C-alpha cells in the first residue's frame, strides 16, 4: 500500500494532508487494497457497499446493463478518483450500477464510519479528510448535473455538441482527448453507435470539428 501514498496525496480526499501523515490516517480508516483483472467486476448492481473506494491504479467504468444486455456507461473512473460513496448511508440500499475494471486495476477501500468518526485525539489531518469528503461529494453531484445536461438534449448532434463543448472547456483547449472510444461514447450519451458515428462525420463535413480516434478539435 505504501507505493500508492504519492497517488493518494493528490486525491481530493487527502488534499492538504502531508504525505507522512497519510499512513497513520489509512490505519485509522482500516484501509484495504484489492486488485482486479481487466473485465472483472469491482461491484455488481444490487451489492451493498459500506466502504469509500479510491482507484489507485488502472481504470474503471460505472455502467448499467438492462435485461437484454444493453450497456449504458454512467462515468469513467480514473486514478485518484473516489467512487461508491453515494451508497455508504445505512438506508441507501444496494448499488444501482456495476463497476467494472477496463484494465488491470487496484482499489483502496476505506471504512466510511471510521472516516466520519474523528479520533479522540482530534488530529487536524483527520478533520481535514472529513471536510475534503464533503467537498468531493459536492463536486461529484455537479458532474452528475453536467451529464444530465448532456442527456436532456433531444438529438444526437445536440448531445455530442454539449459533451464535446464541455470537454473543450474543461481541458481549456480546442483540441482535446476524451476518455471514451466510439462505443463507450455512444453508451455514455445513450445513443446508437452507428447513428452517432454518422453524425460525427456530418459535423466534420460541416466544418464544426475534426477528429481522429479519441482526439477532437472544435472549429
Structure, described:
- Helices cover 37% and strands 24% of the residues.
- The chain has helices at residues 5-9, 22-28, 112-116, 124-151, 156-171, 182-189, 193-205, and strands at residues 32-36, 41-43, 51-57, 60-65, 71-77, 82-83, 98-101, 105-111, 175-177, 209-212, 215-218.
- With 219 residues, it is α+β, with helices and mostly antiparallel strands.
- The relative contact order is 0.14.
- Strand 4 and strand 5 form a beta hairpin.
- The strands form three sheets. It has a four-stranded antiparallel beta sheet. Strands 2-7-4-5 form a four-stranded antiparallel beta sheet. The chain has a three-stranded antiparallel beta sheet with strand order 9-11-10.
- Helix 4 runs antiparallel to helix 5 (156-171).
- It folds into two domains: 2-149, Jelly Rolls, CATH 2.60.120.10; 153-218, Winged helix-like DNA-binding domain superfamily/Winged helix DNA-binding domain (Arc Repressor Mutant, subunit A, Orthogonal Bundle), CATH 1.10.10.10.
- The protein has seven helices and eleven strands.
Please write the CATH class name of the largest domain.
Answer: Mainly Beta
Count of alpha/pi helices = 7
β-strand percent reads: 15-25%
Overall number of strands: 11
Q: Can you tell me the CATH topology of the largest domain?
A: Jelly Rolls
| Class inferred from helices and paired strands | alpha+beta
Going across the biggest sheet, name each strand in turn: 1-8-3-6
Order of helices and strands: HHEEEEEEEEHHHEHHEE
Radius of gyration over all CA atoms, rounded: 19 Å
Amino acid at each position: 500500500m505504501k507505493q500508492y501514498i504519492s497517488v493518494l496525496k493528490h486525491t481530493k480526499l487527502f488534499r492538504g494532508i502531508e504525505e507522512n501523515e497519510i499512513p497513520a490516517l489509512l490505519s485509522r480508516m482500516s484501509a484495504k487494497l484489492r486488485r482486479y483483472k481487466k473485465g472483472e467486476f469491482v461491484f455488481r448492481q444490487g451489492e451493498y457497499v459500506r466502504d469509500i473506494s479510491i482507484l489507485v491504479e488502472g481504470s474503471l467504468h460505472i455502467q448499467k446493463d438492462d435485461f437484454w444486455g444493453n450497456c449504458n456507461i454512467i462515468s469513467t473512473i480514473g486514478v485518484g478518483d473516489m467512487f461508491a460513496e453515494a451508497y455508504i448511508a445505512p438506508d441507501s440500499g444496494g448499488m444501482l450500477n456495476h463497476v467494472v475494471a477496463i484494465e488491470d486495476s487496484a482499489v483502496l477501500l476505506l471504512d466510511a464510519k471510521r472516516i466520519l468518526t474523528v479520533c479522540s485525539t482530534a488530529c487536524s489531518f483527520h478533520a481535514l479528510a472529513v471536510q475534503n469528503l464533503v467537498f468531493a461529494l459536492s463536486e461529484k453531484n455537479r458532474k452528475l448535473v453536467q451529464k444530465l445536461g448532456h442527456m436532456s438534449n433531444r438529438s444526437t448532434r445536440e448531445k455530442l455538441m454539449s459533451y464535446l463543448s464541455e470537454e473543450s472547456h474543461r481541458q481549456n483547449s480546442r483540441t482535446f482527448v476524451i476518455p471514451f472510444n466510439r462505443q463507450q461514447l455512444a453508451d455514455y450519451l445513450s445513443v446508437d453507435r452507428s447513428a452517432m458515428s454518422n453524425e460525427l462525420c456530418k459535423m466534420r463535413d460541416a466544418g464544426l470539428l475534426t477528429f481522429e480516434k479519441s482526439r477532437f478539435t472544435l472549429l
